[in-house]
Amino acid sequence: MHNICSSRPRQASLAKFSPLSIAQPGRYRTRVISVLPHAAKSPQRSMSTPGGIHVHAGAEAVQRPTPLRISKLQL
Fold first, then answer.
1. SS3 31
2. Interval 1-12: pLDDT, tens
3. Which superkingdom (predicted)?
4. pLDDT digits over 10-64, tens only?
5. Which of 12, 16, 69, 73 could in theory staple to 65 by disulfide, Cβ–Cβ 3.0 to 4.6 A?
6. Other CB atoms closer than 10 Å to residue 34's CB: what's the count?
7. Are 26 and 53 in contact (CB under 8 A)?
8. CA 36 to CA 11: how far, in whole Å?
9. Distance (Å) of CA 55 to CA 22, 23, 38, 64
10. What is the pTM of this model?
11. How far apart are CA 75 and CA 63, in angstroms?
């Protein structure tokens, strides 16, 4: 689990990222669903579609992020 701190004080979230497996080349949309606790109501659900993934026919089956890419994501 990754700890993602929000911009609000005293509020933090946890996120779980599972491995993604794509069997065929093509374009795929990504979708992110988040459920946030709410003090007065039931949890609020939010969904966003931030972009897509384009898988090339010659892509390697397993791709690991480089240390440079990891450092950019941790900012």
1. coil
2. 444 444 454 455
3. Eukaryota
4. 455 566 667 777 778 888 887 777 777 766 676 666 767 667 778 888 887 777 8
5. 69
6. 13
7. no
8. 11
9. 8, 9, 38, 15
10. 0.40
11. 21
